[in-house]
Amino acid sequence: MNFASDNVTGASAPILDALVQANAGAMPAYGEDPLTASLTARFREVFEHPELAVYPVATGTAANALALAAMVPPYGLCLCHAQAHVTTDECGAPEFFTHGAKLAHLPGTGARIDPGALEAALARLPRSVHRMPAHALSLSQASEAGLVYAPEAVARLSGIARRHGLTVHMDGARLANAVARLGCRPAEITWRAGVDVLSFGASKNGALAAEAIVVFRPDLADSIAYRRKRAGHLLSKGRLLAAQLHAYLADDHWLANASHANRLADRLARGLRAVAGVRLAWPVEANEVFPILPVRLARGLRAGGAVFYDWPTESLAPGESVGEDEVLVRLITAFSTPEAEVDALLALARDSA
Amino acid sequence: MNFASDNVTGASAPILDALVQANAGAMPAYGEDPLTASLTARFREVFEHPELAVYPVATGTAANALALAAMVPPYGLCLCHAQAHVTTDECGAPEFFTHGAKLAHLPGTGARIDPGALEAALARLPRSVHRMPAHALSLSQASEAGLVYAPEAVARLSGIARRHGLTVHMDGARLANAVARLGCRPAEITWRAGVDVLSFGASKNGALAAEAIVVFRPDLADSIAYRRKRAGHLLSKGRLLAAQLHAYLADDHWLANASHANRLADRLARGLRAVAGVRLAWPVEANEVFPILPVRLARGLRAGGAVFYDWPTESLAPGESVGEDEVLVRLITAFSTPEAEVDALLALARDSA
Amino acid sequence: MNFASDNVTGASAPILDALVQANAGAMPAYGEDPLTASLTARFREVFEHPELAVYPVATGTAANALALAAMVPPYGLCLCHAQAHVTTDECGAPEFFTHGAKLAHLPGTGARIDPGALEAALARLPRSVHRMPAHALSLSQASEAGLVYAPEAVARLSGIARRHGLTVHMDGARLANAVARLGCRPAEITWRAGVDVLSFGASKNGALAAEAIVVFRPDLADSIAYRRKRAGHLLSKGRLLAAQLHAYLADDHWLANASHANRLADRLARGLRAVAGVRLAWPVEANEVFPILPVRLARGLRAGGAVFYDWPTESLAPGESVGEDEVLVRLITAFSTPEAEVDALLALARDSA
Amino acid sequence: MNFASDNVTGASAPILDALVQANAGAMPAYGEDPLTASLTARFREVFEHPELAVYPVATGTAANALALAAMVPPYGLCLCHAQAHVTTDECGAPEFFTHGAKLAHLPGTGARIDPGALEAALARLPRSVHRMPAHALSLSQASEAGLVYAPEAVARLSGIARRHGLTVHMDGARLANAVARLGCRPAEITWRAGVDVLSFGASKNGALAAEAIVVFRPDLADSIAYRRKRAGHLLSKGRLLAAQLHAYLADDHWLANASHANRLADRLARGLRAVAGVRLAWPVEANEVFPILPVRLARGLRAGGAVFYDWPTESLAPGESVGEDEVLVRLITAFSTPEAEVDALLALARDSA
């Protein structure tokens, strides 16, 4: 009963198969192979964008940090939510790749940026050489706490950003979960809503290690190829990443995987809400569930073999709070989570309550 | 007949099998999995060193640049051969990871550093704040031009470096080929000969994407874990790299692969030398052959389907030169090169001569 | 009536004289001149520390950022107050010089760090490669809002920092004002209280452009000479900085200047408090006064020719607040402020009230 | 008899006077003072360029490195002469300010870039992500060895650079000496000949510490204000730099100073050439003399109190060489060198020969 992360699994069967298939034969090194070459057309199709550029990399940290390095000069600010993965969990990767740019923090329930707070922060920024000027906004879709931005929400934030001259980055480590939840086209919550550069995640949703930087504004793409090589993120055997990404997109495998994970998160949430003393900190909109549990119940679940993390309470909605005998936790479902495992956890919860 | 690089192949069968095996089941993310955990013991065994630390990464560029970042401060110099991969082919990765350190170039035939030149360069360096102080020496084993340093040669260079207060890095992208050629123990040409940090390569010799930074001096290891995460080189699914490295080391698979490649390089060299008008720029000591060919012959080989690169003539021995009608080229054999392919190339050469 | 900053004046007469004197004759360049050479002995005397090292630079930004670069690795955290100059007013200089380290913010009234908050922040920091590890604490003496740390207060914060393995930096842009106010020996609030590296300010208190990085821990000094040269902060004519610093320290000129500024700040505070509707946001402990004024009064002062800045209200004590019709402002006195100018401002205030 | 450097003197009388004058009264801090504000108009006049931007800084290292940071991305190459000051004597300042860009070296007698070598180097650079792409050319006017580029020579090099998409930087630490020697207008050897950004030196020719970054292409100026602040090179009391630069330009003081230094260099060269066994390594075109002396003579000069440096022989013209009993040395004259001192050295030389 491992609900700790969507990174604890291996690759999905179709993706593993694709890897094995792609292993045979000689292919040019360093991304000049035919599998990598055909990725561009594939992504242009999926995102309905005739000019986008794609740069596969092996990790989400690399995708985010390379994207931001192309968007923010060393002396610039990038605004993001105070709980965004880029600022809390990447050991300063954006600071490294941008050569010392700074992440400025915005508030918002469930790690989703509040548009009013963004507007206020940008209005407050003085234009002076003593302060670093804002250059980009980074959104996480889904948010670090499993909330989703609808197309209009993305457009609203992007609109504010653009009026202040910022470019817009989307950390899409869980983009698939958001697209599956919203039932929208990928274009709608990305470039059509004002996103300039997307970190397109696959590793959390079926790949072994594959992400893609998707650049919707050709002028921002210029430096990424050099920066990627220089950062050691151009794999010599490009087929490794390309094969995974092709299989991920084929036959909507990515959306099927995400739908499964989302559905199980719903099932988990529904079941937990029915347990006495349990409430959700905020709604489930992707594949993550954030219940506030009696401490005793959390202990019971862990004793019964369930694995999950405690979660900081800073993302709570105004007015919401966690009592002395309670704890906020995070449960994540993945493409590979069996329904039976969810049901086992729920049974355990009912027993421990 | 692809002799362009040892990167044009996929993974060897045992390594691919290991990948598929390791795919099943839940494992902790970010290198906390049991496969990764057991790598340290495995490398300590192979290198007969009780305290070494191992950091797997996906690319040789990352291994080299992270190693150098731990060894050279932003204001320091790293000495290396003028044709070393770190300085010619990594788009400034060492400069990026070290935050602006400089690579200073040393001469030597076949991209192997001349000890006298190293001694002279270090003697010449003034100690003054106007110049960047030398902090490390980087050797490539085998060299970028396929020459090997015997244990005494490594020890001699390391000795000079140490007397001037430098630490010693070895770029072992083709370490297996060197070990197989020399018939020595891995320890003998690394830490016992004075190497502090090793980039241990596997991708060119059977892995799909796997290298390891091997740190023989515990005090130098301190920063690498943070630097690796920050550079986006800590994979979320650590099993990908660990499974490859375990299979690579198991049953001396790495040495068997390298021996095959070396043997075919010898066969290729022997055959080419017998062709009229062909001579070798320097001996074959690993899996790379550098013949000087009549231009007409090179053209004939390519017309016949052989793939290989021209090579710059700066690495030639003093006195050696390439005539107007000649060209220096590089032919690489890999663990997967069929003997028949070498023989086909040789037949073609004899026909084209 | 310029109370905008202690940077609006030129040099004091003794310092200007020293500059003119030092101009004559040939001296070795790049800090090898006798004036620079004798600075070390002078600072060792003033700080009663037999081993300190001194690096003169022209700006406080350079002093702070070079000091932090020697103390914090690129992947490390430096803790400081959320309103500290290093994090709000230097356009990311620490991020630039440290190559991407991060400043983490602590709260506290009047820009003075609350020890409990420091303790809590350090206790909360997880030891994980996903987070940047804390390496240094930076204190401002006097604080950005003119509060002073007594020797015991410095020692308490340093003690917490050390227990967590951090080194301690002091931004002493207004150290003279603090020493003059506390009536203590310079050693007492610096190295004897646990400070490892000090940015010793002179430009705000009589110099034209001169600061010194004072390193009390020899092992931390190693890299500063190279970093300073590399940052363009080693002046070719070292006499410029050295002459100012010698004159600054001679005959306690620095303390006389600071005492004057402090005394006038007291006079200003006393006078303002007597004006109806005016209160101080926090006590005056150096040369800065932070009154909360009726908006109408602030307008009147400016109409009458007084120059000063509004100040953000984030530094207010818990429970304190600024009303709708009020504004928090900052008034600074300098070594050169005439008493008559203070009195003129007070008369204007009484007239405008 | 100090001929070691043009940095061994203080400020010239008019510049020192200007400093003293500018010291009085309150002025806005951080370059918002009227003296700094009027610098732009002054430089536009002197350089006959209606749109140039000026950024004063205290050191030539800062001027060069900030200029290059605005011109070369972190992954880019800057081409310069192998003996250029930026690459040999600034402890890696360009690498620091550009965040890891690389300086690629060009040959040429007397540290003056050979146009053929530039053309060849640019033609040879492969366009590949494995190599850093060339972004800028840096020329030194006068060269590190005292040679001057005539307007056509600058234009020729700039033309080659531009055809390859590079921008052009001029290190004008001794621009005054070049302008005085060539008798041309400052515009002719700078922007009219294709220079985009100029490091305009004053410290070696009469100022105490003052240089200016002069940007002829407005689009390249965007980032310099932020980079300068971030690097600690925005002085709080801007009058210090502005006063020096105004006095430097007033009444052609800069050219008068340079003409004096040049004239004395000529006198020195003429006198030395007449001494038996002495020849010049290359002509005197600015204020530096590079004689090849019998070792015995060099020793005699030093014994007699003359101060000067030995010089590396790498800049010698092809075919030229320094014999076993000879040494190449550098003698520099400054705005303040008395004619009598030159004559004393010559007398000493004649006595020692």
TrEMBL record, chains A, B, C, D:
Quaternary organization: Homotetramer.
Function: Catalyzes the cleavage of L-allo-threonine and L-threonine to glycine and acetaldehyde.
Keyword Lyase included in the entry's annotation: yes
Cofactor section: pyridoxal 5'-phosphate
Domain (Aromatic amino acid beta-eliminating lyase/threonine aldolase): residue spans on this chain: 3-290
UniProt KW keywords: Lyase, Pyridoxal phosphate
Protein's recorded name: L-threonine aldolase
Domain of life: Bacteria
Species of provenance: Methylobacterium isbiliense
EC numbers on record: 4.1.2.48
Family membership noted in the UniProt record: Belongs to the threonine aldolase family.
Reaction it catalyzes: L-allo-threonine = acetaldehyde + glycine; L-threonine = acetaldehyde + glycine
UniProt entry tagged with the keyword Lyase: yes
